[in-house]
Amino acid sequence: MRLSTSQEVEAPIRFVWRQLSDFGNWERAASQRGVTVRRLDGTPEEGPGTGWLVRFDYHGRMREVEMRLVGMEADQKLLMEATGHSLRADLTLAFLELAPRRTRVTVTSDVKALTLPSRVFLQSLRLAQGTLQEKFDGRIKGFAAEIGRRWQARRKAAAAAAAKGPQA
Question: 76: closest CA among 139, 35, 21?
Fold first, then answer.
């Protein structure tokens, strides 16, 4: 099952890229929501091969997913893969500069079943694909708006610092 959406962000592509490729920030945000995240490679560097073991409660049961960063092209694309007990998902984030301070982010999620019960589960999700797509769109739109707010706050802080002048 595939879900895809594009959102425009009111920020330069480099800023958007840095925000969405800051995996330490994603780890902290997940932990704040009660998700357990453990780095698999133990290195502070992030690049293809970086992996995480993610544990979370879903419908009263603990789930475990292994996530891997399988590819990245600076300011252009992030490719992730998540594998659970019975599902595999590929996640692609593509970045396109529309203007110096405007970026389009396209997020595509492709979920595949690994077992027969998961095929039945995915089939039931396809029946609600319209609702799922709306939720997906809303979540990505929220991320885009938050990144835009961070950019505006950064610009205001920089302008205020410039107006203050050099400190002695």
Answer: 21
What predicted TM-score, i.e. pTM, was given to this entire model?
0.86
Find, among 32, 31, 70, the residue nearest to 54 by Cα: 31
Q: Which residues contact 84 (CB under 8 A, 6 or more apart)?
A: 63, 64, 65, 66
List C-alpha distances in Å: 130 to 11, 65, 127, 141.
29, 25, 8, 16
Contact 122, 1 (CB under 8 A): yes
Low-confidence ranges of the chain (pLDDT < 50): none
Give CA–CA dist 55/90, Å, rounded.
18
Which tens digits make up the pLDDT trace of 54-68? Answer: 999 888 889 999 999
Give the pairing of strands 36-39 and 61-73: unpaired
| Angular region, 112: left φ>0, alpha ψ -120 to 50, beta rest | beta
How many whole angstroms separate alpha carbon 35 and alpha carbon 120? 26
Neighbours of 122 (CB within 10 A): 15
Give the pLDDT of residue 167: 63
